[in-house]
Amino acid sequence: MTNLQNDRSTLIMAHCRRQDGSTFPSEIAVNRMRSGGDALCFFIRDITVRRQAEEMLRTEHNAIQNAANGIAIANLQGLLEYSNPAFAAMMDVANPEDLVGASIFDMFDGNNMVEDMFRVVLQEDRRWHGEVSAEMPSGGTIDLEILATANRNSDGEQVGLVFSFSDLSDRKRAESALREAERQRVMLESLGAACHHLGQPATVLMANLGMIRMKVNNDNPLVSEMIDSSLEAIRRLGDTLHKLNCVNEYRTTSYMGDENDTS
Asked: CA-to-CA distance for 252 and 237, rounded, in angstroms?
């Protein structure tokens, strides 16, 4: 009533009851008539549709804010106007608002790729999907999967782009681990096959040299020394093949040196 006395009008948000007993949200404008003493004029507007639209917008906003995927909106110049917390976390930024104004062209590696994205989305009116490497404000990089589509206003006009981001770091690490495991398997299988093929000739050589050693006259020290040296070399070759055959992990470190070499 104070507003009516001072301003001669007020606005009330209330639920009105229909004749059938149902209620609806309404916006009631009350005006105090200039003539007629204390007469009041009521304008009642049914705001059910507006309330539903507001609820839908609130729901969509909460869904975007709490989405696991990164969501961002950029204008036609490629400057970010919005970022949800998930995208800010991907970019290692504490406050999503700190990304507002950042350029997509500066954020993603390869301006040609970004130009192609804008051409596909804005000129060809199609969705763009791809993988990019993004540069974080902290200086690091992150691999992202991006889905980009046009952002439109209420008149259907293009006003920018909407991006959905997925962090590929875990997938890239898993793929790298699988590649390394396959490389280990191939190397170990190759190593086992090589040991098998080298072991047979080494056994024959050792047996033959042993028989020759027994028949050589000790009066010829040079020949005896050469045979003993060859036998020692074959024994060392056999020990090395045995060690290689027991290897269960492949690493690019040197272990083929002298037996006393611990480097």
From this structure: 20
